[in-house]
Amino acid sequence: MERLGDSKMTCVLERKAQIKTNKHLTDHLYVMELIVEDIPSLVLPGQFVHVQIPGMEGHILRRPFSVYHTKQSENKLTILYQIVGFGTQKMTTLGAGDTVDVMGPIGHGWTIPATCQSALLVGGGVGAAPLYMHAQELYKADVSVDVVLGAQTEAALVCKDRYEALLGQSVPCSTDDGTYGYHGFCTDLVSKSLDKRSYDYVACCGPEPMIKAVCAITLDRGIPTFVSLEKRMACGIGACLSCVVETTNGLKRSCVDGPVFNASEVIW
Questions:
Q1: What are the residue ranges in the chain where pLDDT is below 50?
Q2: pLDDT value of residue 16
């Protein structure tokens, strides 16, 4: 399949990064800006970085984070992260001027048909962040882009404003508690979007049950669909086999063969 963008995995670098900001967004969500040489200019939409957190010398494993967006002129790379354990909790204590060790960019990004004219992007929770650079890529290529976002609460829709600024239009959103937009799951909004217009391509990222539900809808309609799968990674370089994904082409490593996969090849 031809690509609109080049999603091949680039050379993986290891660099020291200085934290510019580490902002508290909600009880569990933070956004961190890093100043790091070389890596921001190499990141392709859908790739991630592997971060070694200072003060955790007793924990040898790095933490993987999808790249939210970059500003190459400032050597800036931004990640959105959620507190899920000791490592991410430790990250919340870091501030401007602190340094972290970063490996990246890692993984294969989004693969889309060269003939794509209309795309639907579906992001659930922090899964909205790995899709943003992809939305930029599609928009710059004059592809008609629609976005659907879902989160537990209105406060957790932290990517919404950036998407709306890029696209120049409001973004349909769902919340589990009904505090904003549609009260329910974003899969309902996906079905409504597909009923309104046809799409050449769908990209999805978020909790795996949500991704699976979206794919059941889109693949049933014959729409090429690609997904970014959030798997627990240990090494991040394909050596440990802790993040395998079962596909029709055998077991694949999410870190280097993914994290983006053709949904039609994933065995759920």
A1: 1-7
A2: 97
CATH value at residue 170 = 3.40.50.80
Provide the residue range defining the domain that includes 177: 118-230
Determine the pLDDT at residue 217.
97
Return d(Cα 1, Cα 137) in angstroms, integer.
Answer: 18
* Structural domain count of the chain: 2
Q: Are residue 174 and residue 72 in the same domain, yes or no?
A: no
H helix or E strand, kind and range, residue 168: none
Whole-number pLDDT of residue 20: 98
CA atoms lying within 13 Å on the CB side of residue 56: 20
Q: How far apart, in whole angstroms, are the C-alpha atoms of residue 250 and residue 268?
A: 13
The Cα 223–Cα 240 span in angstroms is 34
Which pLDDT belongs to residue 103?
94
pLDDT of residue 219: 97
d(CA 27, CA 83): 9
40 and 64 in a common domain: yes
Among residues 140, 133, 162, which one has the least CA distance to residue 149?
Answer: 162
Counted residue by residue, the chain has a size of 268
| pLDDT (0 to 100) of residue 112 | 81
Give the pLDDT confidence score for residue 134 in this predicted structure: 97
Amino acid at 205: C
Strand residue runs (E) in 167-242: 173-175, 182-183, 201-205, 225-228
Cα distance from N-terminal residue to C-terminal residue, the chain: 23
- Residue 236 near residue 257 (C-beta atoms within 8 A): no
Rounded Cα–Cα distance for residues 247 and 263 (Å): 9
